[in-house]
């Protein structure tokens, strides 16, 4: 019976000693494919690898276009009103 789990990304161990059967890999590159497999480990050693899963991270989200037509729509001695498209 397994006591801990190890996660491998593209053949490199990225997590070890996990007691949960879930893992979140972070700080990855957008729009990139990664291959993962998991092994189990106990006092007798490490198992062979699980099946491999290939996951591609999402494309980066683009920021919106900059607003245009910024202008002052009025002011007083203590306020400024702005408007834009």
UniProtKB/TrEMBL annotation:
InterPro entries registered for this protein in UniProt: FN3_dom (IPR003961), FN3_sf (IPR036116), Ig-like_fold (IPR013783)
Domain Fibronectin type-III positions: 1-60
Source superkingdom: Bacteria
CDD domains membership: FN3 (cd00063)
Skewed-composition ranges (Polar residues): 70-79
Region (Disordered): 40-85
Protein's recorded name: Fibronectin type-III domain-containing protein
Lineage start: Bacteria, Bacillati, Bacillota, Bacilli, Bacillales
């Amino acid at each position: 019976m397994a006591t801990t789990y190890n996660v491998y990304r593209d053949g490199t161990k990225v997590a070890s000693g996990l007691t949960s059967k879930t893992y979140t890999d972070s700080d990855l590159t957008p729009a990139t494919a990664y291959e993962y497999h998991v092994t189990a480990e106990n006092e007798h050693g490490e198992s062979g690898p699980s099946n491999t899963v290939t996951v591609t991270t999402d494309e980066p989200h683009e920021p919106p276009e900059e607003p245009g037509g910024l202008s002052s729509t009025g002011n007083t001695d203590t306020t400024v009103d702005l408007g834009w498209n």
